[in-house]
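Aim 2, interim progress: modelling of the zinc ion-bound target.
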Amino acid sequence: MLTKSSTELVRQRNSVLVLAALRRHGALAHTEISDFTKLSSATISAITADLEKAHVIEKSEQQATSGRGRPRVLFRQRRDCGYLVVVVISSDGVQYSLVDYAGKLIDRFSEERSHDPTGAERFIASVKVGLARILSRSKLPQEKVLLISISSKGLVHPTDPVLVWSPIFGSNQIDFESALRPDWRARVILGNETQLVAAALGANEENARPEDFRSLAALSLGHSIGLGIVRRTGQGEREISAPNFGHMLHMANGGLCRCGSKGCIEAYAGFYAILRMAFEVPLDTIPAKFVPVAELDKIAAQARQGHRMSAFAFRQAGIALGNGLSRLLSLTELMPIAIAGPGTRYYDLLRQGVEEGLGQAHVVRMEGMPEIRVVPDESILVFEGHLDRALSLIDQELVLSGIQGSD
Ligand SMILES: [Zn+2]
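Predicted structure of the complex, ligand included:
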């Protein structure tokens, strides 16, 4: 009994390894799967046969480049094994994408969102309509959608798909699982947006330099300030988290934040905070809900021309970010920092403050400045992060739900 079930566990684990290798490297031949997974040839034959029988993967033949000899047989995820819907909630809209099991984008549309903070109920209703719309456009039966992956800024429950606090809905919690459950059988997951950026960067990093990668922090600059951390925990295994960085204390009894507290990092480094500082508005003024990027562009242009208060606003923002990062590194370890989001367009103005804020920390004085890089397209990283997380969850669930061979 015991041997049977432990054999089964090993088999499941190995099946997940094979699927993960196909995810990372694309279509692979038998020998390549063996190279990447270090599994024996016989094990791979048994697993690929089972996965093929269960319609999870498929074989294709590729003619040898010389045109002679036997064609290579390649395995890959079957596109129609199942589908994923990605829902990206941003400050001004919601984007819906339909993706097949092989990770190919099939359909996408965006809908504008009204800036009504009390409209959590109405918002959920609109998400239901959006999901129904993407399904009807695809003409797929609903049970083919295996997973709905949602992202938002704000504080996400560590295990459940519950948005605990967000800049849009405040502390009006949204439980996506119970909101969608009567209509949808698919699994529902929720991720913090910057957490997904970190997930995508971590996956890229581990592919690029598998021996060296340990950890990385992604910092997103915009109306709100997000942070995601990714750490390597094993081969192809990463742990991602999104601490509540934007609302960590920067200055006791400092500027009023959108969350209602005083002195948060965001109350110095969020777009509304930079605007407030540049116009010398009192720091206890209720911050603007939404600041158009064009407004910030104007302040940045003035700062670059030497306008004192505008330059000071960006420098203060940089110091708040640098101080926060120095605390983060003191509590964790020295790790590279990737800066993303619409605020990267002002990094020339923020940089001096960021370095000044970081430089005050003992860990930085001892071990040197962390590597800081600016990553341009955040929305692509958010989407990649969704796919990285959601598709590997689908792989695991397919294996656990019983592709168990006939023995
Ligand atoms: Zn706050």
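Residues 247, 257, 259, 261, 264, 266 surround zinc ion (CB under 6 Å). The longest helix spans residues 2-25.
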